[in-house]
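This section describes the prediction task in plain terms. A model, or a person checking by hand, is given the sequence of a single protein chain and must write out its three-dimensional structure as a string of tokens. No templates, partner chains or ligands are provided. The sample shown here is typical of the held-out split.
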Amino acid sequence: MEEKQEQKFQQMTETPVGRLICHLALPCIISMLVTAFYNMADTFFVGMLQSNSATAAVGVVFSLMAVLQAIGFFFGHGSGNFISRELGRHHYEEASNMAATGFFSALFSGLVLCILGQIFLEPLAYLLGSTDTILPYSTAYLRVILLGAPWMTASLVLNNQLRFQGSAVYGMVGITSGAVLNIALDPLLIFVFDMGVAGAAWATIFSQFVSFCLLLVGCTRGGNLQIHVSRVQLKWDYFSMIIRGGLPSLARQGLASFATICLNWAIRPYGDAAIAAMGVVQRIAMFGGSAMIGFGQGFQPVCGFNYGAQLYSRVREGFWFCVKSSTVFLLVVSTLGFAFAPQLIALFRDDPEVVAIGAVALRCQCVTFCAMGWVTMSNMMLQTIGQTVPATFLAMARQGIFFVPLVWILPLFLGLTGVQITQSASDLLTLACAIPIQLSALRKLSLPDHTPIQNGT
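The expected answer:
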């Protein structure tokens, strides 16, 4: 085991940075694309039920899925960032303890959310943005999704811990297998077994359970840290490190959920078609950015290992490589998205009103989409090296600090158009903040290699 871990350390600290990031990013990109694709699958197949309310219900419950992701990413990134730095310092005992602590904490948190959600099902559905016409569909979908909360949150922890150890391939196998199963089960349960929108939810939680099992197996392979309940550390030091490393992810994903709820409430006066349209746009935008996020996830273990080993020049080189590559990629994606916006919306809900509303919103987002390369890579680097405060601010900015007030203010003056342009306006304001914050962090990393940096500064 120690020999394999030493080989992994040498790989992470000696392989040319660009080649290493591409090697680690490929399985992450595949995982993100497949995950985004099967998140879109529910919208696609439910959209075939010929009901705007059913399509809207999937968009409404999407905010609850974001809460589950927030919990999973909080414990996954919080423990994973710590693990990558400790492996870079050859502290294998502490890394193993953190792996178990992060995993079981997420499993327990998902169980609590499942129980509370079932007790308060209808109030929760209304809180997420359901109207009276959407409610029967949203509760049917939500009731089932909540059952899978424990292993859905824990799967995200396992996937991120494997990735931060430089073993993203094992995570890719688990995530991809579940995604392919979900896509196969959706039409079977929705149409063949006539389960409607609930069938999409059953397909999701069953496929997520298969992913969970495969990810657990991945932890026993390739010199990866194994999960043992005996290693759980109920100590403040460990939870403090999870909070420091995971708070930006919790803020980002939690506010994404809150932003979706606010969006659903802001769009309600314009009808179920508008809610359905914005739900489709969210899924498409998520798919468009998934490859870029996967690329950044390939950078994070490189960043963590080399920061822990005090090889700051490799951290800086990796950041600039990722920013340049992701910006070029996003320019291409934005151009295609802008050109084919109506056709993309129609794939999920071929209703003239839904297409008209969604196409405008999607084109607005495409205009500022390329700015997310700098924002995302900055956020990932700051979080990985333990710069909790600036990382959390950037994580909160796009979907919280700027989006939430704008989605209420802009419609007062611009009506529906105000809702449609909110994300673009928020993106520009976030970029304006991210540039000086990241340049300051890069200046602090201009020290010679092997120079200790105190208190993460």
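For orientation: The CA atoms of residues 393 and 401 lie 9 Å apart.
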